Amino acid sequence: MKKAGANIYTFLIFLFLYAPILVLIVFSFNDTDTGSRTVWSGFSLRWYRKLFEDRLILEALRNTLIIAVVSAAASTVLGTMAAIGINSMRRLPKRIVMNITNLPMVNPEIVTGVSLMLLFVSAVKLFGGRSLGMGSLFAAHITFCLPYVILSVLPKLRQMDPNLYEAAQDLGCPPVRAFFKVVLPEIMPGIVTGLIMAFTLSIDDFVISYFTSGTTQTLPIYIYSMTRKRISPEINALSTVLFAVVMALLVIINVRSFRERDGRLKKEEV
Questions:
Q1: Using CA atoms, how far apart are residues 46 and 42, in angstroms rounded to an integer?
Q2: Strand pairing partners for 30?
Q3: 50-96, pLDDT tens digit by residue?
């Protein structure tokens, strides 16, 4: 009886969380001229066709993908280098740096967004240059993606045998080559996980992007502007596409983590 009650409770929780998304996905295929969200008029892909014929949406999609790819790649490189440096620190400095690293994740996004906006505006006034736009978005997205990459790579560095790097050098391998041949393959799963997570966070961000975008529009900002003016069924199709992309990336991350765990358990059994 207790188990059945727990199952029902879990089902209701998931229903409450995902029923609105399910309704949104279903009505993105609704063949309606009025944009009704309560009357089903038949199955159609018309709103997806209109979505990909809309120049403003395609421009926002292009901006979003460029920002996500560049910021994910940059934060992955910088985060990996930072994780290697943090891992080699002593206990007290490492604890201090890790607390500083965790701060952007626990800090409210609106505080981060406003503070970055003020920083970029002050930098433009002091040093000149262009106003807020793609450059400020790149810097902002790299800033909030960096801690997630560091936290993805650090566990792999801790799991790695610290003597492998020195052993490779003792066998005649130069330091740089030893890193790419020995260390990098060992921590690659963490790097890939951090890269995918950074891409997902960047493509999905609204609050920080809203304060640092200037006149540049990303998809989340464009969706927000659509809801303020008129609610078109195109927003259902656009939200469905975003949900599918983020869900696919999360599935990839979870599959990789399960495979890594299974491989680790098999090694321990052997």
A1: 11
A2: 43
A3: 888 888 888 888 899 999 999 999 999 999 999 988 888 888 888 88
What's the pLDDT score for residue 34?
Answer: 59
Structure confidence at residue 150 (pLDDT): 93
Distance CA 173, CA 1 (A): 64
The full DSSP string for 172-209 is T--HHHHIIIIIHHHHHHHHHHHHHHHHHHHHH--HHH
Whether residue 156 contacts residue 138, with contact meaning beta carbons closer than 8 Å, is answered with no
Is 43 in a helix, a strand, or coil?
A: strand
Cβ contacts of 181 within 8 Å, gap of 6 or more: 168, 173
The strand pairing partners of 43, in sequence order, are: 30
DSSP states along 48-107: HHHHTT-HHHHHHHHHHHHHHHHHHHHHHHHHHHHHHHHHTS-HHHHHHHHHHHHHHHHS
Which domains, ranges and CATH numbers included, belong to the chain?
Answer: 57-269 (1.10.3720.10)
Distance CA 97, CA 65 (A): 31
